[in-house]
Fold these 2 entries.
Entry 1:
Amino acid sequence: MIHRISKQQVKEAVQEAYDKVKGMTGGANANYIPYLANIDPNLFGISVALPDGEVIEAGDTEYAFGIESVSKVPTALLVMKQYGANELLSKIGADATGLPFNSIFAILLENDHPSTPLVNAGAIAADSMVKPIGNSFGKWKAITSFLEELCGSPLNLINELYKSESETNFNNRSIAWLLKNYGRIYDDVEMSLDLYTRQCSMGVTAKQLSIAGATIACDGRNPVTGKQVFPAGLTPQIVSLIATVGFYEHTGDWLFTSGIPAKTGVGGGIVGVLPGVMGIAAFAPPLDDAGNSVKAQAAIKYIVNKLGLNIFSDKHATIETVDRKQTEQAMA
Ligand code: GLN
């Protein structure tokens, strides 16, 4: 069954979610990365990007925060774009670890496999695979250009965050060298770790994240710029990765209660992808004990529930999108 949703309903749901969740308390900023501990905990924004390029926003959607683990999604996509999905599967894997994002135990348990590019181990391995191999500058350019194409606008590195993470990422250093020991780092170890640390420190807005989500939802075509950013056909693979491990050890709870594949970051951002329907992002710094934004989770759940967008439901939603060019012509 297909049920149609109007844009007006989406706008209302976004505003309602904002109003209801804004005053919510609970959670705390990430404290293991000093820069994140000091971000204003009251920042809060929600953004929905639709396949016709319209973006519906509420709150602080233009504030650039640390993308953190959400950056694992674009890098995994870039590796699939450069090598094909099968190579990512064989060199990294697509299994949930059921353990925290920075688990060393997970690597020891599955020592022939970093499991998935959406946990720290697999993301560092993915960075090591990015071409051009051996060329730190070229790899960084490839990673950031791809991220900008997904988001449809320029992004900046948050230098202070990068410095803060580089000075405190001892656990990630252990992960990188342990992976090297198991033959799962495909380029220089320190370079791969540094690329991972830097990509986590990119600033991104909720609006940009929602557009990146919509680009994935539209099988690689950025609905705002119109550019085909990755080869059509990769959406099922990347969404399957997001669905299986987007919330780490709480992914099952998340899917059970929200019905939408989504990826979190300790910067407070979450991006959800509903293939063919929308990209949805929310941002608020206070996190629960698994490192997921309390308000962003609540906002996305509210909207998905209100609009009946649960992907496991027998009802599939389509949003009535209007061809903006046609409307503009009609109004001229
Ligand atoms: N840069 C952070 C880390 O490696 C990202 C973690 C996250 O967002 N879950 O610890």
Note: The chain has one domain: 2-331.
Entry 2:
Amino acid sequence: MNIDGKQAAADLRVKLTKEVESLKAERGITPGLTVVLVGDDPASQVYVRNKVKQTREVGMISDEIRLDEDTTEEALLATLAKLNNDENVHGILVQLPLPKHINEEKIIATIKPEKDVDGFHAMNSGRLLNGEKGALVPCTPQGCVILAKRHLGDDLSGKHAVIIGRSNIVGKPVSILFLQENCTVTIAHSRTQNLPSMCRQADILVAAVGRPEMVKADWVKPGATVIDVGINRIERDGKNKLVGDVDFDDVSAVAGGITPVPGGVGPMTIACLLKNTIEAAKIYG
Ligand code: GUN
């Protein structure tokens, strides 16, 4: 069974639109998100365009700042300093990856934690790890949990979640979120021994490695819930195609629920970005 991320994201946006309306009516706050894009990577341009469009659709203010590929680190830091001090900006997102001459860690550390709607700042990852209130939680991991719950119901306790991938953006934070849901969590990665048999133990399998169609049917326990975070562009039969980290056709036959690519986790990432911006405006606006 397909887990429909497009529909889940649309449902979430309906809720968020209402929250924006009541924030405006009750507190006079219109949540604002500014997206900063450095350079002209085509994939990043598409993401940024979608983020800006959807932000406006739920009634929020959205700005886009485009900087040249050869923008200096100092210039980007100065832009962020302005946004940090702008009270109409509740969320700041710097689209990654950045050009090589700019230090990503330094940029992320410069964004005010209260406006870090990506949830990448050490203050937010620390708060998430400690289970503290007020953490802005990375968007894709939030989307993964929402989709797992959409299929399995709200109570995930006791389920074995196997996460393939240990990145700061997805693998590590999504592991913490499933742990908070009382799952038993295993983090697998490129050095894990006998990865297929490890994955076969999962009730919930999250693939976040960036390897096209790596997860096959015999890696999946019958009936398991499979969340595919991968977005890989490949060429097949002379055409460009978008595929996940899971071999969809193969795994669909055994999984109880599976997110497609596109139309699974991707739309949820953007919806959760809007959610985080509203959260930031509510708490810190
Ligand atoms: N590039 C790809 N995904 C993301 C994301 O979630 N946030 C940011 N800032 N950049 C990205």
Note: The mean pLDDT is 97.
